[in-house]
């Protein structure tokens, strides 16, 4: 590990470069965390993840999203439903959580610009009415993305969509629960493994909306290959593993010992404008658990927020620069855009957040400069680098879960909401 200075750690390969401006997280602290990682068996837990052991111990399941990246699923890009996609001008995806955030991110980054992609994700039926108001049912297909196919929000919208369309053959279900989808007379069904968690389903056929159309740049094979390369790196590349450790260890340290329990994720590439939303679900649903009673870390997941950097600068950056809240930051940009204003803003804001500013400002306008900041620079943005970036974020989250001694693959807090909502509806004659 590099000695701490203005940039206290650097990692670079042919896909991305990383600089950390987290001066309070010293080499000594890192070594303490590294000793803890050996104590909790981090390397063996990583091996368990990729070997198919039941790492989701509360539900007795493996986490097979990594397998998809290794064994390219035949269904993706080569199945009988391809004509369905090409037949319509409007592709409406009904889903929530990972079933929504993943496809949306991929479409915005690499997807077909010729098709009219819409996402309906809420439980308020007015959303459906508004988004379909100007659509022709004959030119519209629906993709119903749901692992369980029992999510109340999704089912409510599905029932309305079936009535609106009048043609069940224009519906395609992507699910891990085929029998539930069949209850709605849906015949077009693509099934993925139940051992693929919803927030990890981007590696499955959930990503199909991004694929089809003459102007789509999304290549699922390259996307999976990029994710698989990150898997190979964390298993075989000590520099990459150390990079992931830095991210995880510093997240935990700031959250538990430095009073910084909030982290902003800011993308300075329009293609990645929804990455913060995707990462928010991944991290907060995976790490938002009660701490292990034997763990010395009592705060588990950080609060994640963020969005598109150029917009955020004109909304909540004032608080980050001069407010009193204890915040960390991740900034993401692309080296393809070095001549753009957005790239200049990414570099500038990284330095301002980390070091502050005095010489150009009046005393009362001094910028704090006390925000630990990670800068991620992708060499370019394409299907391959997207896969690598997302898998890297998953590895960061998984290593944190091992250190925190919690299960990152269950979500009983989410399930509780579903159960109680269903009971309320039943009790009130809904």
How much of the sequence is in beta strands?
A: 5-15%
Output the strand order for the largest sheet: 1-2-11-10-8-9
- Enumerate the spans where pLDDT stays under 50 for 5 or more consecutive residues: 1-6
Based on secondary structure, the structural category is alpha/beta
CATH architecture of the largest domain: 3-Layer(aba) Sandwich
Mean pLDDT: 86
The largest sheet is: 6 strands, mixed
Radius of gyration: 22 Å
List SSEs in N-to-C order.
EEHHHHEHEHEHEHEHHEHEHHEHEHH
Shape: globular
Tell me the CATH superfamily of the largest domain: Glucose-6-phosphate isomerase like protein, domain 1
Describe the SSE topology.
Elements: E1 9-12, E2 16-21, H1 27-39, H2 42-51, H3 65-70, H4 82-86, E3 90-94, H5 98-110, E4 116-120, H6 125-132, E5 140-145, H7 152-165, E6 171-175, H8 178-182, E7 188-191, H9 220-236, H10 238-257, E8 262-267, H11 275-287, E9 303-308, H12 309-312, H13 317-322, E10 327-334, H14 341-355, E11 373-378, H15 383-404, H16 412-427
Parallel strand pairs: 3-4, 3-5, 5-6, 6-7, 8-9, 8-10, 10-11
Antiparallel strand pairs: 1-2, 2-11
Task: Give a nutshell description of this structure.
The chain is α/β, with parallel strands linked by helices. Helices cover 43% and strands 14% of the residues.
Write up what this structure looks like:
With 430 residues, the protein is an alpha/beta fold. It has 2 domains: 9-56 and 222-412, Rossmann fold; 72-218, Glucose-6-phosphate isomerase like protein, domain 1 (Rossmann fold). It is 43% helix and 14% strand. It has 16 helices and 11 strands. It has helices at residues 27-39, 42-51, 65-70, 82-86, 98-110, 125-132, 152-165, 178-182, 220-236, 238-257, 275-287, 309-312, 317-322, 341-355, 383-404, 412-427; strands at residues 9-12, 16-21, 90-94, 116-120, 140-145, 171-175, 188-191, 262-267, 303-308, 327-334, 373-378. The strands form 2 sheets. The protein has a 6-stranded mixed beta sheet, sandwiched between helices. Strand 3, helix 5 (98-110) and strand 4 (116-120) form a beta-alpha-beta unit. Helix 1 crosses helix 10, helix 5 (98-110) packs antiparallel against helix 11 and helix 9 packs across helix 10 (238-257). It is globular. 44% of the residues are buried.
